[in-house]
# Entry
Amino acid sequence: MDDLKTKSLHAGRLWPRIGGAITTPIFQSSTFEYHGEDYHDVGYIRLSTTPNHVVLGERVAALHNAEASLATGSGMAAISATIFTLLSTGDHLIVQDCLYGGTSSILSWLKRFGITHTAVDAQDPSSWGAARQESTRAIYFETLTNPLVQLADLEAVVEFSQEHGLVSIIDNTFASPVNFQPIVAGFDLAIESATKYMGGHSDICAGCVVGSRKRIEEIKVTLDLLGGSLDPHACFLLERGLKTIGLRVPHHNASAMRVAEFLSAHPMVEKVNYPGLPDHPHHDRAQQLLDGFGGVLSFELRGGTEIADQFLGALTLPAVAVSLGGCTSLIVRPAAAVHAGLSPQERIETGITDGLIRFSVGLEETNDLLKDLETALQAAELG
# Structure
């Protein structure tokens, strides 16, 4: 199987089929018969060894063209298990200067265990060497940042990590394996919040980490201890979502492109952040590295916070809500929700203004979304 759409349907499936079932059954059993396995391979939900976990792990790995993967109870479970596996007291991590809020929070929390980090300018690889210490063990970046949708020089990240013997980790949530495959690009580990595009239906909380079989086995031991496994029913829902990822994400890409073009031409819009637009500072890099520009964009309206809130209140199709990557369009003002935990100064430093709006473009008919946006913009202008 070479094509992603075929892998999303068949990779890792149980064979022979259980009772002839075309869909993987939900193995809602907490424990399974013991046949002399090593402890971490014993059939038990917390150890992520149910048939649902096994099928899901093989399928996610296949979609990333990787040796192995591990499903987790959330994206944060994948992040925490990975970091705790790689870093110990006294170790140091290099990270890019704009990270998902949950990642930033756990890195700050880890200082109490003597694990430190240094943020670097993602757009200036020449500055990264100054951040490296003798205790540096890994480097952590994101494919596309939240909510400004910026793209770092990912090839330079791989080169830097290999030159200095660091483990390279990337959060690939915004791209999904449809738009970017980090392991193929040379990263050691890829993390996904499967709650988003991989699940695709806004009905589960899940995560995964992908890489070599050896590294995934090491991370699994940590996850087993932390208790961050995914329930078999959620495994079933994630597997179901993956079956259509090769169809869903291209639509997200195409629709977001049209929305970005519409907004960038509208007189009420001050700025649009979307790597598919030619004026995006990282457009050329995105064309080179990505197979699609993604389904998330952000923009600012002329008039600031008041106009932004009036606009959000006038929309009928997108739901004003956190998260992203689902079938339904989701829209939010990050300063009021997603990044509310940051101080005003921290938001300013990362370019997140109070009036910035993040839009996760769903699977609705694009023309209907454009009409709704136009109507809401008119309503906001009239006050």
Summary: Residues 246-382 form a domain with the Aspartate Aminotransferase, domain 1 fold (CATH 3.90.1150.10). Residues 144 and 151 are 5 Å apart (CA to CA). The chain has a mean pLDDT of 95. DSSP finds 14 helices and twelve strands in the chain.
